[in-house]
């Protein structure tokens, strides 16, 4: 069984850049957007637990590229929208039905 490491970029919009600066693994793209690489083995998507673990990893990466302003504890609407877009883009880029179904279920619960 071969294990293929795949890289994923999560890209945050302007809301993420407003309070950027903390994410250690984050890099700035040429167009000014912030990106985080999430590495995973494609084998992880073969199980429900592996898919959930990857989804949590993607959600944490979305939090890094779309951080809250340091002067507030509340996640405002712009930050939530940025995180949702980044997470959806990552799920769509991976193009895995199990991951897409998990994302759809999580999105319907939160929205």
Explain the overall architecture.
The termini are far apart. Strands 1-3-2 form a 3-stranded antiparallel sheet. Residues 1-8 and 13-24 have low confidence and may be disordered. It is an alpha+beta fold and 111 residues long. Helix content is 50%, strand content 17%. It contains 4 helices and 3 strands; from the N terminus they run βαββααα. Helix 2 (48-65) packs across helix 3, helix 2 (48-65) packs across helix 4 and helix 3 packs antiparallel against helix 4 (97-110). The chain has one domain (5-110). Strand 2 (26-28) and strand 3 (34-41) form a beta hairpin. It has helices at 14-18, 48-65, 77-94, 97-110; strands at residues 5-12, 26-28, 34-41.
Helical amount: 40-55%
Outline: globular
How would you write the strand order of the largest sheet? 1-3-2
Helices, by number, come to 4
Oligomer: single chain
Helix/strand-derived class? alpha+beta
- Overall average pLDDT: 77
* Secondary-structure element pattern, one letter each: EHEEHHH
Record the SSE blueprint.
Blueprint: E1 5-12, H1 14-18, E2 26-28, E3 34-41, H2 48-65, H3 77-94, H4 97-110
Antiparallel strand pairs: 1-3, 2-3
Helix pairs in contact: 2-3, 2-4, 3-4
């Amino acid at each position: 069984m071969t294990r293929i490491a795949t890289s994923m970029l999560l890209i945050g919009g302007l809301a993420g850049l407003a309070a950027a600066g903390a994410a250690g693994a984050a890099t700035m793209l040429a167009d000014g957007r912030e990106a985080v690489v999430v590495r995973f083995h494609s084998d992880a998507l073969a199980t429900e637990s592996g898919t959930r673990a990857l989804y949590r990893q993607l959600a944490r990466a979305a939090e890094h590229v779309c951080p809250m302003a340091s002067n507030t504890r509340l996640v405002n609407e712009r930050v939530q929208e940025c995180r949702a877009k980044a997470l959806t883009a990552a799920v769509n880029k991976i193009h895995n039905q199990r991951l897409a179904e998990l994302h759809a279920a999580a999105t319907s619960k939160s929205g």
